[in-house]
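Technical appendix A lists one of the benchmark inputs used to test multi-chain prediction within the project. The record comprises two sequence entries:
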Amino acid sequence: STIVLVFEAPKTFEFAIKAGQKVKVGNRLGDV
Amino acid sequence: LVSAWTQTPTKWYPLPLAVGALLLVMIRYHKKSGRAEKEVHVDEEGHEVIKLKGPWQVHVMSALPLRNMSRVWGYMNSFELPIWIRPYGFRFYAYAFGCNLEEIEPSDLTKYANLGQFFNRQLKAGARPVDNVALVSPADGTVTRCGTIDNLHIEQVKGITYSLDALLGVEPSDPTPQETLACDKSLGVRKRSISGTSVRDGNSLYFTVIYLAPGDYHRFHSPTAWVVEKRRHFVGKLFSVSPHIAKRLKNLFVLNERVAFLGRWKYGFFGMIPVGATNVGSIKVNFDLALRTNVRGRLPPPGTYTEDIYSEASPLLKGHPLTPAQEMGGFYLG
């Protein structure tokens, strides 16, 4: 299964993850 | 080898005409099929028509009764197992798929009557600390893609994209009474116009795709503080969504059955879309008990969906409010 997130954010938004990285619930994905 | 390489005389001779012609035909076929892969078919309203595209293995797979297979798999895993076999069976499963048995609740493996229950296990309180940032992971898994959305297309894998409108669905514009009824009463609605994709000045649209492997914790949580205004249920195929298939099957995430939660957060539009797969065909949502996924019946055309509005959950917020990391629901076997 897969979860896709689509969201609007200011252009200052930065991902804290990269493709291939393992994540767990509550881990930081990104911030403004 | 060295002497054979240096001393063997090279004899050049012309290729037969038929071989050359065959080569030209093959090159032409390759170019044509490459163009066909890139072609976008649109309907009379200019919206992209979702079609199955991929190598022959994908077409063979699409001929299989994947939805029925998924339901049989779920049914088989709903049988109650003998108590004595449960710890051995679930420990073997945990070993094979890398589950951490120390974080599950209850930790007594005899309490899980079957693999279906174990698959949808819950975690001990505090097992997943929540970062205090704008956006956190809604699930355990692997990030397959993330980035900005360009030209209203999301990248499935490098070089293969799918339409944002096809993923989220499109609201009917100027609905006729029949269309309004269809929208409200959960009948099929044909997409009409773009929705939820306009952004404010200074903002952009971003996306993240998280793949949940079989051994991962399969409940999903809210990734931020937001208000879910509506959900759209797209009945569809149940292809595997493993990275191996994602690389080969174009439009995978818009062909598969999925539930799109649409709403808003402090920066504007927010959408979350759990996508089902062959072994994990059912999606259940804690605050939407009416939702039924992977049920028997004929598949509607791709792009159609049923919609439910959550405005009654909170008339003030006009939707269902969620806090960061609040459990929303889960994926189930079958």
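Chain B has a mean pLDDT of 83. DSSP finds ten helices and 15 strands in chain B. Comparable benchmark entries are summarised in Table A2.
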